[in-house]
Amino acid sequence: MSIRGIRGAITVELNEESPILDATIELLDGIIEVNHFNPEDIASVFVTVTQDLDATFPARAIRQMAGWELVPLMCSLEVPVKGSLEKCIRLMVLVNTDIPQKDIRHVYLNRAQALRPDLLGK
User: Fold this and answer.
1) 110 close to 94: Cβ distance less than 8 angstroms
2) Burial of 98 (C-beta count, 10 Å sphere; 0-12/13-18/19+)
3) Which domain, by its residues, includes 77?
4) CA angle at residue 120 from 114 to 12, to 5 degrees?
């Protein structure tokens, strides 16, 4: 068994608690759906946000999901590169799995699809 990293990103339109929490759940649900794992398989989740999202911690949404109470979570700020995508939440989910790296499915939603157009449709 290996530890694999699963990436994902989503954007929100408003720097408000509800949209940030809802988007975080939508993104993680999407990653779970296409990769078929359970919280027990997760080593940890690293969450970043752009500097313009400071209304809440996105990890709060994950912590409230059934079965995710014990999964280690960490939030951080994304590197503030000029001209980069705004209002973006990114996840790096580290999962214990036998799935080969080539079969891991990464998820990019809303305007975050522009970050990795090479992964769309895979």
Assistant:
1) no
2) exposed
3) 2-119
4) 45
**Residue among 100, 113, 28, 13 nearest 63 (CA):** 28
Catalytically annotated residues: 7, 63, 75, 78, 90, 108, 116
Q: What is the CA radius of gyration of the chain?
A: 14
Domain CATH number, residue 99: 3.30.1330.40
* Close Cβ partners of 55 (under 8 Å, ≥ 6 residues apart): 15, 16, 17, 20
Total number of domains in the chain: 1
Q: Which amino acid is at 25?
A: I
Instruction: Write the pLDDT tens digit of every residue in 78-106.
Output: 999 999 999 999 999 999 999 999 999 99
Q: What percent of the chain has pLDDT over 70?
A: 98
Half-sphere exposure for 19 (CA within 13 Å, toward CB): 14
